[in-house]
Amino acid sequence: MRLVAVRGVAKVFANGVKALDGASLDVEVGEFLSVLGPSGCGKSTLLRLIAGLTSPTAGEIDWPHGKTDLGFVFQEPTLMPWATALANVELPLKLRGIGRGEREARAAEALGHVGLAGFERTWPRELSGGMKQRVAIARALAMEPAILLMDEPFAALDEITRRRLNTDLLELWQRTRFTAVFVTHSVFESVFLSQRIAVMSQRPGRVLSELAIPAPYPRTEAFGTSADYAALCRLASSHLSEAMAA
């Protein structure tokens, strides 16, 4: 079932830069979809349009069954340094008017989901980069969104931490089955995570091709070193090269 449809969307900024031109994309309920493309191709702009953080210059964002609750995870954790991990996760619940007891319980549960049980009273300065990003994911999940939008959330992390968080994110997605839209410029990350990859052209961006990733879940470290994974990465890389040349 289609959750959201992007139809012929263009976005021109006030400075005249055209980020998107005729971008179209369907997002299905419960799927893990990656949006793959080179830096500056409009991936983040597309995600912000879906989130309603900005408006399209042309085209439309259609929610066939009504717009649903969504969570957004940015490239940087954007945590409040003066608040504990628990308080950071609580914040959007507090802004929604949810009572203290319920929001503390939901925030603690969300931190547990991302492997941070026991770190509720920890300050951001005491957390590693990967742990801060886990808090940001927990903050989005505490809202119990139907769709989670992620804008290159692991791009600034070292390779070991990034791989661990990719595995943990998939385990979390399998447990809760939110709809995931994950923006990345990494072929390897998109293949490891996704059921489907939408490949974007260079700016002004549009979706030029889509690639199904038929590998079953759970996807373990063994999948990440398999011949099937390598073949799918080569195929995705070929799609990306064609999109960049278009």
List keywords for this structure.
246 residues, three-stranded antiparallel sheet, Rossmann fold, globular, six-stranded mixed sheet, alpha/beta
3D architecture notes:
It is globular and about 50 Å long. It has helices spanning 43-51, 85-95, 100-113, 129-141, 159-176, 187-193, 221-224, 227-245, and strands at 2-12, 18-28, 32-36, 58-62, 70-73, 147-151, 179-184, 196-200, 207-212. The longest helix is centred in the C-terminal third of the chain and has 19 residues, at 227-245. Strands 5-6-7-3-8-9 form a 6-stranded mixed β-sheet, with helices on both faces. The protein has a 3-stranded antiparallel β-sheet with strand order 2-1-4, with helices on one face. It folds into 2 domains: 1-40 and 49-68 and 146-246, P-loop containing nucleotide triphosphate hydrolases (Rossmann fold, 3-Layer(aba) Sandwich); 79-144, no CATH class. By secondary structure, it is an alpha/beta fold. The chain has 8 helices and 9 strands.
Q: Could you give the count of β-strands? A: 9
Question: Could you describe the largest sheet, including whether it forms a barrel?
Answer: 6 strands, mixed
Distance between the termini: 31 Å
- The order of strands across the largest sheet is 5-6-7-3-8-9
Radius of gyration: 18 Å
User: What CATH architecture of the largest domain would you give?
Assistant: 3-Layer(aba) Sandwich
CATH structural fold name of the largest domain: Rossmann fold
Q: How many domains, in number, for the residues?
A: 2
CATH class of the largest domain: Alpha Beta
The named CATH superfamily of the largest domain: P-loop containing nucleotide triphosphate hydrolases
Low-pLDDT parts are none
Backbone structural class = alpha/beta
The average pLDDT score comes to: 94
Gross geometry: globular
* Count of runs of 4 or more consecutive helical residues: 8
Strand content: 15-25%
The run of helices and strands is EEEHEEHHHEHEHEEHH
Helix content: 25-40%
